[in-house]
Amino acid sequence: MKDIQIGGLVSFTTIDYPGKLAAVIFLVGCPLRCAYCSNPHLLNVRDGEYDPEKVFDWLKSRVGKLEAIVFSGGEALMQGDALIEYMHRVKDLGFLIGVHTNGFYPETLKRASDFIDWIGLDYKATRIKYPELVGQNIAHDNMIKSLSVWLDTGKDFEIRITCDPRHITKLDLLEIIQDLHSRGVKKIAIQKYIPHFEDNEHGTTPEQRAQYFNDEKLREDINSKFESVIWRE
Ligand code: SF4
Fold first, then answer.
1. φ, ψ at 61 (rounded to 5°)
2. Is the whole-model pTM more than 0.85?
3. Is 199's pLDDT higher than 50?
4. Is any atom of ligand 1 closer than 6 Å to the C-beta of 76?
5. 174 C-alpha vs ligand 1 centroid, how far in Å?
6. What is the Å distance from ligand 1's center to 103 Cα?
7. How far apart are CA 178 and CA 214, in angstroms?
8. Nearest CA to 184 among 144, 130, 125?
9. Average pLDDT over residues 149-157
10. CA distances from 144 to 19, 29, 178 (A)
11. Any idea where the domains of the chain sit in the sequence?
12. Minimum mean pLDDT range among 36-50, 78-92, 98-112, 116-130
């Protein structure tokens, strides 16, 4: 079996796995091409820059110092069986396993769901606007299947919505919220879109990016529907 391909590593974080000291492993490759991608250097599958066995040796040295290891990307689950095997080994070291995912691989998520402890799942836009944002027609359907897989596990998770004003209006956000509420989701995070470059084609104003966060009525409406809403500005 091919090794996992690792393109980056964050050795210590307190914000990528709720309430736990963690490291994040970034895997290369992603089936989507989101307009606001913050990791474009990780999108194409290629040989990773990190030796997975050296990373594993380093993880062994973190036993007792870190509590969780988060697999992110790119889209980590794109690496299928190779990732599942690697995560198994990391789990055997005693770490909690977290995954940040766009939900494109519900079958892989299902196969790994016994030993993944927590996921952060992206809900990127309304169903109708998904293709224009991510460049993939079936991404919304797959993400909903992944949500359903994870809801069946009964394990903790967070849905993340990044409010890019080019792709999400306030009405769109309310449509997404209604969908999540009706599916029984309890915890969400609403994230501000942070542009990585500003020019005439891609530019948005600070006011446009802040509109969801400055609207008290919108915030109250959304807060009232969930157990936990994190507003990440
Ligand atoms: S799913 Fe994530 S990694 Fe993939 S293109 Fe979108 S933002 Fe980038």
1. -75, -15
2. yes
3. no
4. no
5. 23
6. 11
7. 20
8. 144
9. 98
10. 26, 21, 14
11. 6-232
12. 36-50
Which residues lie closer than 8 Å to 52 by C-beta, 6 or more apart? 3, 4, 6, 86
Domain spanning 6-232 has what CATH number?
3.20.20.70
Compute the distance between CA of residue 212 and CA of residue 190 in angstroms, rounded to an integer.
Answer: 9
Q: How many CB atoms lie within 10 A of CB 87?
A: 21
Sequence letter at residue 13? T
Rg (CA), the chain: 18
More confident residue, 202 or 100: 100
Cβ of residue 27 lying under 6 Å from some atom of ligand 1: no
Q: Which residue has the tokens 């990773």?
A: 48
Q: How far apart are CA 74 and CA 72, in angstroms?
A: 7
Q: Is 176 in the pocket of ligand 1 (CB under 6 A)?
A: no
Residue located via tokens 């909903």: 144
3 state SS of 110 = helix
Cβ neighbours of 126 (radius 10 Å): 19
CA atoms within 13 A on the CB side of 214: 6
Question: Ligand 1 in contact with 32 (CB < 6 A)?
Answer: yes
Q: How far is the CA of 194 from the centre of ligand 1 (A)?
A: 14
Rounded-to-integer distance, Cα 181 and Cα 187, Å: 10
| Atom 6 of ligand 1, nearest CA residue | 34
160: part of which helix (H) or strand (E)? strand 157-163
Average pLDDT, the chain: 94
**Cα 125 from Cα 172, distance rounded (Å):** 7
